[in-house]
Fold this sequence. Notes:
By secondary structure, the protein is α/β, with parallel strands linked by helices.
Amino acid sequence: MDLNKLPPTPYHLIDLRRYIKSGPYGKTMMLCTSRGCPQRCTFCYNLSFNHSRWRGFLPAKVLNEIKHILKQHPDIRHFEFWDDNFFADVDRAREIVEGIKELNVTWLATGAHIKEIYNMDDDYLASMRDSGLKEITMSPESGSQKIIDFIKKNYVIEELLTVNKRLGKYC
């Protein structure tokens, strides 16, 4: 299914205030901008549920949804992207990041694969920081390369260490 063919979210049918939470970055709204993950981690539900397939909303659709929410609830200051892998398409994520810069909000991504962050250049990481990035959640699962290989996480420990050091400069 092409997610971009779905109609706009019918926010008028729900009391959105029930889904806005207060957090360390102010009033917060959670959004899913994609479904699935292309990785093949052996323990993950995505392997069977989404068949390791990733589908994302177009950046314009994501940004329009954020703008719509902000228009109705201007007190929201922070968005949490609860995707399984927000950065599966790094070009799409970059477009969203660039668009968020204009909205004067902060954000975090709860789903990121270490390899995708590892492959980002410093300009990309700085752009994310400048757009209001506060956190990126990754799941390394283990500090043992043997275990990482066994569960097919698709990265090496040195990449994880590098990513953590680099993100320390930008988050």
